[in-house]
Amino acid sequence: MSNSKKTLPPDSINNPTRRSFLTKGALLATGGVMSLAMAPTQAAPVTINVPETVTGGRTRFHQIYDVIVVGSGFAGLAAALEAKSHGLSVLVIEKMAVFGGNSTINGGAFAVAGSPQQKEAGIQDSPELMYQDMLKAGRGLNHRDILHVLVNGTQEAYEFTLKHGVRYKPFVQHFGGHSVPRTLQTVESSGAGIIMPMRQSAQKLGVIFKSRCKFESFIQDNQQTVVGIEVKENYYFPDENSGLQKNYGARYGVIMCSGGFSNDLRFRMIQDPQLVSDLDTTNHQGATAEGILAMLKIGATPVQLDLIQLGPWSSPDEKGFGNVSQFNTIAGYPMGIMVDARTGKRFTNELADRKAREDAILAQRDEQGKPVYPICFTNKEGAKNAQSLPAALKYQVAWQFDTLKQLADHFALPYENLQKEVDEYNTAVANGSGDRLGKDVSRAISLAEGPYFAVRVWPKVHYTMGGVQINPNAQVLNSLTGNPIQGLYAAGEVTGGPHGASRLGSCAVADGLVLGRIAGAHVATQTANPLFSTSDSDNA
Amino acid sequence: MSNSKKTLPPDSINNPTRRSFLTKGALLATGGVMSLAMAPTQAAPVTINVPETVTGGRTRFHQIYDVIVVGSGFAGLAAALEAKSHGLSVLVIEKMAVFGGNSTINGGAFAVAGSPQQKEAGIQDSPELMYQDMLKAGRGLNHRDILHVLVNGTQEAYEFTLKHGVRYKPFVQHFGGHSVPRTLQTVESSGAGIIMPMRQSAQKLGVIFKSRCKFESFIQDNQQTVVGIEVKENYYFPDENSGLQKNYGARYGVIMCSGGFSNDLRFRMIQDPQLVSDLDTTNHQGATAEGILAMLKIGATPVQLDLIQLGPWSSPDEKGFGNVSQFNTIAGYPMGIMVDARTGKRFTNELADRKAREDAILAQRDEQGKPVYPICFTNKEGAKNAQSLPAALKYQVAWQFDTLKQLADHFALPYENLQKEVDEYNTAVANGSGDRLGKDVSRAISLAEGPYFAVRVWPKVHYTMGGVQINPNAQVLNSLTGNPIQGLYAAGEVTGGPHGASRLGSCAVADGLVLGRIAGAHVATQTANPLFSTSDSDNA
């Protein structure tokens, strides 16, 4: 019985282990390849003509790059730009038709410790303070080494984005769980405001982009070094029968920036059976687990996969991230209040960390366990920066009222309670402190005057804190030895550890950009040690 | 370049993927093997003489069994006995010098829903009630399919243990988080009271046992079916350089019963960085993660690995499980009270589930964050069933006092507070209900009279709720497909899911015995489909 490819069963297509007899020096077997060894590493990719079947410890690379980045979100683009800036040839693949993944539909909010905007506003901040905030929100479960790297890299990452054309609003915002305002936001109020200019910049610099190109599995040599990946080109998500299988080689490393799995119903329910199908998610359809699972299968270390965050600011009245999430983040929570729909009373610090708010909101249920959607509102002054409000009003997922009485009547809230609650809150705002629920009201506004803008709130599956373990060089670690898996990097949501039990808002952008850059920079230090040699002969 | 074994780097010894070219039909290549195909499956294992090196898709099995069980605790012995009772040849391997793992040092407490002892005591119970209790303690994170199987199997598993010689105390106990008393306990007050008779019974029936035999990795065929394991015989824990490598074949399946990882400092800190080295564990030294990790590496699904339980009844004054844990479980908590060492006031329901108690105790810290060990005590009447008390007194990890005043003085507790607390508690006990902290005092006793027995309390790392995912047949599931990995079973603490966020006391024995039996029974249904055929020729 031979071991030729055609004898493999159909389901083995996802299994990289059958590559394990690939040997160093046997990768590039034809004469045409030898000239490649002479080419500079920036050379355009070349097709290698080796036999069609996998035999005798030889594989076929249809293309070879210095670095392959899987995923085109914040982490992927940061890694690609950084590697390219060091002169490497870089391929970015994206399984979806459009680039950017969740990053393009996120709010474009980026926590930077020590930004010029903070200095201008007289806000004292430091990486150490950000570290403490994230550790507190993470309930101590954070991986401190990665967290340390993350908070120390935000300023540089901010400058890096400016260099690549990203534009931010001139003011800094106060997101829940942060002890000071430190959140910058793109002028577009969207992550697309980061993704689009960074991708344009990368393309100009010569980074190769392929969409509809799905990562399938890793190609490893005999020493388990990752030397490439198997992909499907012309893949049409989610049709697993679509696409043409190809092998890409990576001279210095593969960087996995394939994101989280909030939209992978099967895998998220294995981790938390409560996250059932009728719980909506803010994530795009492609947010699935295959990238993480492929890494686990070659020995990566799983970290805290069941720590899954529900976004505590979304609306049950619209699908996905929607327009309400941004309204609440920018206006409703910092500049307004949220009340129990039965009592008209506030029940949580609207600026607590996400987990605290998520838990408080999910506890709002009637005796049968059915959700009682809380009402969040602010007034015209509070909503002035909420760019998504017109759309939310248009789609009737937000409502405008001239008076509190009208607001109360619309939602069948007890008006007297509500008025009393607003009065009490306004008193704390006027004093600049002393809020009953511990909210920092030093930058809040009085809600005495309308008109008011109100939304209903219910959490959605938003972010998977867990993923694979990396070291501070963004190298993926082997679960048995704790040592790096040679040739394999990861950054962004596909990794686990920095956020612990609960990620703070605007720290995903920070995570992706900072660790993505580190991955791209570290892989560029490996040029003296290619993972395979193009000059070895087949019989070496 | 050949793929012969000697070219593999040293670190690949833990890597099963290099076996991936092993093909069905190529396992047993010599003429001497053919006679094995004729032998009944109960035949004693035979050494197969095939070439020393792994070449051309051939491996060497030094021994072949119908079933190989990895681990000799509750799950392992239950699986072995069940498989043996169906006529299969069974090997049980244990890496430590002694058999039984953690199971021998646990308290021998077994939750059975519907035991004769319950009926005798007039206690109404059902699998459904146990299911609800475990789901509540598990905070809804439980895998319902496995939980269902678990609670429905306790009665039969109880009878199974009786058949194999286990003896229980004639009364039923009330452990924390269970809504009724349903915990049986061996007369020895130890899991050794289950392990020893079951192992003797298994040996009599012909199960082969090998200690100092460490599981190293799986051997898979081309279709990723698990057909055997690589072990180290004569292994001296924890010396990884000791032992002689051997390959064992398993005709119908390998059952992983290798336990949890509470004593694997590196891996447990990856999952929960707060579980640092100076936090003690109740577990034996061999409770490490390599079994789980090896399964993940062949595609098993990780479940909730960061859900790690601290035992809320152990003592900071002794190492390991110790004598105090049993005292608190049997006497201190159900028959006594636990107080804050600064105030003399109770601070938690002593019969709450483990997580609730663990969290409450761990919150007992001074302003610098240092532990303030709570004091738990009962009186002579309450301690009458606590067999470990004499040892605890002898080793001065428990103390005896004639009066409450003496007890208070010894621990520098405010006596008046303490007396008031005891009086209040006694009132609730006299009423049979109405405890301030919600404790079920219907079976509690008055603490009006001494002498008193007291201990100090601090949690220790006790149980890893997470592990690999199995289906209700105890088959290990592939993370990508959700389908069983052919030839691979798992049961007991190495699996994840049934307990969710917090395992209830005495449910580990239930889990191990019930799911172990299911694994052993299911593998016995596979005799028509051996994982490899001994009659295939090398060139088929």
Automatic annotation (TrEMBL), chains A, B:
Pfam families: FAD_binding_2. Residues 66-508 form the FAD-dependent oxidoreductase 2 FAD-binding domain. PROSITE patterns: TAT. Coiled coil: none annotated. Its cofactor is FAD. Keywords: FAD, Flavoprotein, Oxidoreductase. Belongs to the FAD-dependent oxidoreductase 2 family. FRD/SDH subfamily. This is Flavocytochrome c. The lineage of its organism: Bacteria, Pseudomonadati, Pseudomonadota, Gammaproteobacteria, Enterobacterales.
